[in-house]
């Protein structure tokens, strides 16, 4: 399993492309991860929250 990355970023547990768990942080682009199995470099980014009417306070 990957170790926590620098700068407090969350650690992905597996590659979103091939599913392998051998990931290492990489500096370019900032916040990116490199999969050692398929050699892809990817980032994980939060797009936002999907709030519903039930989530809003009365």
Automatic annotation (TrEMBL):
Taxonomic superkingdom: Bacteria
Identification of the protein by name: Transposase-like zinc ribbon protein
Record organism: Halopolyspora algeriensis
């Amino acid at each position: 399993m990957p170790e926590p990355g620098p700068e407090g970023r969350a650690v992905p547990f597996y590659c979103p492309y091939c599913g392998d768990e051998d990931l290492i942080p990489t500096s370019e682009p900032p916040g990116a991860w490199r999969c050692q199995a398929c050699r892809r470099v990817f980032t994980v980014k939060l797009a936002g929250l999907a709030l519903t009417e039930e989530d809003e306070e009365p």
